[in-house]
Automatic annotation (TrEMBL):
Keywords: Signal. Residues 1-33 form the signal peptide. This is DUF3857 domain-containing protein. The keyword tRNA-binding does not apply. InterPro entries: DUF3857, Papain-like_cys_pep_sf. It comes from Sphingomonas piscis.
Length: 687
């Protein structure tokens, strides 16, 4: 769906993972004839290739890197990126090296290939002498609603064999038409690079000196130059991210550079783009749309909701990186006329409508991909943001409006996604703002399961299942299920249930509750219930959704930093199962196993049973209460795993039993309360 994944702005880089730069973030513009071909020429003067590393006598792995150079050059136009390498193929799996490809944005300029050579038995073959590139102009991500204008040139090296060496060198110009000489980026050495020589460099012209920041291992290896720095590693050891640590600790071999002096510089640079785009022409049809909204809705929040719904419903999502649209939004009138737009275009359109309605609002840049953990520890760089939405001031409160979400997602006091940091775009400039983590008050997933076994143990039971899903997953379901007719939905579930325990699927109903912000799916049918025969007429049943797997032990390799915290994946789920017991049985014939309440590794676990009016109900809840746990607490809870109750939830029938099962109202059945509401009895206050 739009918000979680397709708004990321990715651009023209070599198909390697060593370079990530702001100027590469979806750079696009009209394809100029001189820029839609691959040029050939010598390496730039600022490039200093590494010496070749001799091939050792004993080799292993798919390839050996005799040299790999990734170099960045900053000048008055922006950024150029060079990559050169020579690699020896040791295994057939590395023959894909013969599929040489370059992706670039023609708005920035044409790429220049300096070399593509094959070495075999001491002889060199110039591949470029008798070969040419095929230019692919298709939009590879069109199915994902992405129009980025990026071109790809491919050339296949013929007759490539194991034992050959391939040498290549290419430079790509990465000048963003919006940012110009303002640029930022990263150089990194991967966690597990192939054996060989790996070199990184960044250099600059006079007047282009960037801010620099690097991790400890890079600090130890760097060689400073008058207008740059270089790093070289021979056979670097693997350096996996610390096991279980938050993502910010995964930055281990990285060099950052930026021409932005602070985050406010980025805010000031981008704010005018939206301020300009959000101004409507006197003849814009959007002025009439705003008048209609104002006439139909007297309150500011209702007006903002209507404006947001208009953007969500009437403008379909398509990422637009064409015509300089990678960073700059299209005008609202243009977006409205063509009826498609990306996060930038939809945000500008929404800002224009809100302005007409007299509602103050700002665009805000965020990271939908979750790359914002530890953002305050990095140099200012727009590459960390991949999405923009609106923050509106209404009635003394801040509301979040995202035009890329489905129309059921109205203004909210908290963003739909759990952002850690965000950056408002303001004329005065705003720094990044931290969003504190909150313990969720309502489950994102509630599963209800009702078994009506009143007709007896040996008869199929009527079963009703209800799935209540909130958050981004609930919106994904809304997109999926809203496209189906009731008949299609029923047919789909009947086909899916064929061959499993369902005897019949009689009805399937789905709706999205905008007030509860939840997708609600209910399936009704009959099932064969797997009662376990324990002899002498005794029966038992394992309840669905009633047990927990023990939490995994927290730990990391001895050579990794033991002082780092451990990350918890946020989550809050609640499972409720009600069994309406056979009418021929008596309450004293029934029993069930233990409930519990405990907390391990910052997660609250809860299970409780209730017995009333001929029905047994089990509630099982689990919620993460802290996003990170310190190593001392983790070590303590490692010692508690063995005592964790991982038993299944079991109910038992004994014809001669005389169990004193108390009647209780503390455990409501699946139909007794509105489980799509708030303040659900899914947890205890376990410590």
């Amino acid at each position: 769906m739009a918000a979680p994944d397709r708004t990321s702005c990715k651009g023209a880089v070599l198909r390697k993972v060593w370079i990530i730069s702001a100027a590469c973030v979806a750079v696009a513009a009209p394809v100029h004839a001189k820029n839609d071909t691959v040029l050939r020429g010598p390496e730039p003067k600022w490039v200093i290739p590494s010496d070749l590393l001799p091939v050792p006598e004993t080799l292993s792995g798919p390839l050996f890197v005799r040299r790999s150079d990734v170099q960045i050059h900053l000048d008055a136009r922006g950024q150029q990126q060079y990559q050169g390498y020579r690699m020896k193929i040791l295994h057939s799996s590395a023959l894909q090296l013969g599929n040489f490809a370059i992706s670039w944005n023609p708005a920035a300029g044409a790429p220049t290939v300096h070399a593509l050579r094959l070495y075999r038995d001491g002889k060199m073959t110039d591949i470029l002498k008798n070969a040419s590139f095929e230019i692919l102009r298709r939009e590879n991500q069109l199915e994902a609603a992405v129009l980025d204008g990026v071109l790809t040139a491919v050339l296949r090296i013929p007759d490539l064999r194991v034992g050959d060496e391939v040498e290549a060198a290419v430079t790509i110009v990465a000048n963003d038409p919006t940012l110009g000489a303002e640029t930022a980026g990263l150089l990194m050495l991967g966690a597990d690079p192939p054996p060989g020589r790996h070199a990184l460099a960044v250099n600059w012209d006079d007047g282009q000196t960037p801010l620099l920041k690097m991790t400890a291992e890079m600090e130890a290896a760097v060689k400073q130059e008058s207008h740059g720095l270089r790093l070289s590693f021979d056979n670097p050891a693997p350096r996996p991210a610390p096991q279980g640590a938050p993502a910010r600790f995964g930055w281990q071999r990285v060099v950052e550079f930026s021409n932005f002096r602070n985050w406010s510089d980025i805010s000031r640079r981008f704010a005018p783009l939206y301020a300009k785009a959000a101004k409507l022409e006197p003849s814009s049809p959007l002025k009439e749309e705003a008048r209609k909204i104002a006439a139909a809705h007297p309150g500011a929040l209702d007006r903002a909701s209507a404006a947001l719904r208009l953007v969500q419903q009437e403008v379909r999502y398509v990422y637009v990186g064409l015509n300089g649209g990678n960073l700059a939004p299209a005008s609202p009138t243009e977006t409205w006329q063509r009826r498609y737009g990306d996060c930038k275009g939809k945000t500008a359109l929404l800002l224009a409508l809100l302005s007409e309605l007299g509602i103050a609002a700002d665009p805000v840049m965020v990271s939908n991909s979750g790359n914002d953990d530890g953002l305050d520890e990095h140099l200012p760089n727009p590459v960390f943001f991949d999405h923009v939405l609106v923050r509106a001031a209404i009635g003394g409160k801040s509301y979040w409006l995202d035009g890329t979400l489905p129309a059921v997602a109205g203004p909210t006091l908290d963003p739909v996604l759990p952002y850690r940091w965000l950056m408002p775009l303001t004329a005065a400039g705003s720094s990044i703002v931290r969003i504190d983590w909150k313990i969720p008050e309502t489950p994102t997933e509630v599963a209800l399961y009702e078994i009506d076994a009143r007709e007896g143990f040996d008869r199929p039971s009527k079963v009703t299942t209800t799935q209540i899903t909130r958050g981004i997953e609930g919106l994904k379901q809304q997109i999926q299920f809203s496209a189906l007719t009731p008949a299609q939905l029923l047919s789909s579930f009947r086909q899916e249930s064929a061959g499993n325990a369902w005897v019949t699927v009689d009805d399937v109903k789905w709706h999205y509750d905008s007030e509860a912000r939840a997708s609600i799916l209910t399936v009704v049918g009959t099932r064969d219930i797997d009662w376990e025969d324990e002899g002498g007429g005794a029966k038992s049943l394992i309840l669905p959704g009633g047990g927990f797997n023990p939490p995994e032990r927290r730990g990391r390799a001895s050579d990794q930093d033991q002082s780092l915290p451990y990350a918890n994946e946020p989550g809050f789920s609640c499972h409720v199962t009600t069994v309406r017991l056979p009418k021929t049985t008596r309450p004293e014939n029934w029993s069930f196993n233990s409930g519990f309440k405990t907390r391990l590794f910052g997660r609250n676990y809860y299970r409780a049973f209730g017995f009333r009016d001929g029905a047994i109900t089990m509630i099982r809840g689990s919620r993460v209460d802290v996003p990170e746990i310190d190593p001392v607490a983790a070590a303590r809870d490692n010692g508690r795993i063995a005592a964790f109750d991982n038993s299944m939830a079991v109910i038992r029938y004994e014809p001669k039993g005389q169990n004193a099962v108390p009647s209780t109202r503390s455990v409501p059945t699946t139909t007794e309360i509105d489980w799509s509401g708030e303040h659900l009895p899914c947890l205890s206050s376990a410590g």
